[in-house]
Amino acid sequence: MKILEKERKKKKIKQKKMLLSTFRRSSSRYHVSITLNRLSQMGTFDNQKSLPRLPVPNLKEACEKYLYFVKPFTTPEQHEKTKAAIQKFMSPGGIGEELHAKLVERSKVKENWLEEWWDTEVYYKARIPLVIDTNPGTVAQDNEILKTIPSSRLQTWRAAQIIHSSLNFMKEIQNNTLTPDPKMCMSQYARIFGVSRVPDLKQDKLINYLGNPKSLETKHFLSEYQPSNPNHIVVISKGHFFCLNVFSDGNYIKSVDEIENDLIHIRTKCQSLRHAGSASIGVLTAIDRDTWAKARQALVSLDPTNEQSLHVIQKSLFVLVLDEESPNQSEIARQLLAGDACSRFYDKHMFIVFRNGKAGLTFEHGATDGLTLVRLLNYINSHSSINSFTKDLNPSNSYNLLKWVLSNYLEKCIIQAIASFTQRESELDLITEEFTDFGKEEIKKTMGCSPDAFFQMAIQLGFYKLFGFCVPTYESGATRQFLHGRTETIRSVSSDSRNWVESMSSPRIYTESKRATQASLLRSALGTHSHYSQDAVKGNGCDRFLLGCYILSLESNKPLP
Fold this sequence. Notes:
This protein is α+β, with helices and mostly antiparallel strands. Helices cover 47% and strands 10% of the residues. It is built from 17 helices and 14 strands. The strands form four sheets. The protein has a seven-stranded mixed beta sheet, with helices on both faces. The chain has a three-stranded mixed beta sheet with strand order 2-3-4, with no helix packed on it. Helix 10 links the parallel strand 9 (319-322) and strand 10 (350-353). The longest helix has 40 residues, at 2-41. The protein is globular and about 75 Å long.
């Protein structure tokens, strides 16, 4: 009887635990539902005023993190020398305390203490070419509807869907109706459409032709605002540039059918044209910024037609490329990063649509970071549909071919730009492979670790097995939980990761003891990476802080620490 009584009590306790667990789970779903509902009712930029400012990291902690993460790349002697320099830098009354205090004061008067320096020093003063070195490429997910589209329309259908959905996305931003990313700064969304980088000697400009959304009160430091109410995009095909009006009378977005009709006419016109080649100014945006700035000035000075055409491109909402290639899944990333430079304009965000319907995006990185544009691509994919286009509509008069007047000097510049780009492209090694053995859910459930940390350690192991040493590795961590936040460096290589990859590359004599040691070292490496990743996105990394100290030293004419 006593045994039965105990069993009944155990059963009741178990039932209570199950009920409590069910309540917690249902409460969690209820909480998520309420949160999502509240987000959907919020305006795109309603959260901006409540966002915290980017913090200035603690001096001692930032310096200690830096010392830890440089250790894998230094000899014992170098490490001791670095340690002594850091201790001197952060000593009481030293230059480190002075610079840290100045950063703290700066953070009190600036919306974001880093923003001005990040825009100018990292992006717009940089003189290196944008293509490959700066502008990222993002592959768009293949849409299932593509399988139902006739092969002759794959490119124009996909391009029309991208244009139409992007314009709707833009309207939601302008009308403050795009659901905000939870507790994230949304200001980068105001730098997607109608913005252009413009080259100049020593430092480029970023011009916003669409203007800030009325509901977004804060403005990015570097942007110049020249609102001109653009209603067109630029389409590039075979090196030729077309201005395409994408709004109908009454400022309504054109239908997908109308847009596709326009694109078919543009592509048909290009069939009778040779590839622009050495007459295409697009490749000039692929060279170093000072050379492009000089060439652009020569273009503008030569003939008013050139200036008009350049302004049409700059003021466009975005650029769309109808590319002649039909890359497979392993080739598309390379085409986005490099591809036909004569049919690109790297100063703008660009959609690239290939003959086989595959597509992607390459963007001017100074204006925005990747996750913002990934959301745009996801929006496009979820808003695509089968349009009823079955025959040619009336001949299109919505587009016109942009014209250029070139001198011998400019033709020589273009030929040299093609040669420079071809050389740099030949040095790019990029192979895309699709891994299907397992994914992030299995990593989380089976291995109990962060998929990001797992992937970063896989990169480290692969590199070490190929070359036998570690190199400093940069992973970007988003700091958009702060007003005008951009990124912080996540340093993927640590002493823990190095210890693990070295253990995995030791003589292949496998014992249970060795496997246990390797597993323990891997857990340590994963834990270190995850911990520092969290620090970085909270604004408590070391790289942005040290950048701030470096720039302050330059501005104050002080010896570099």
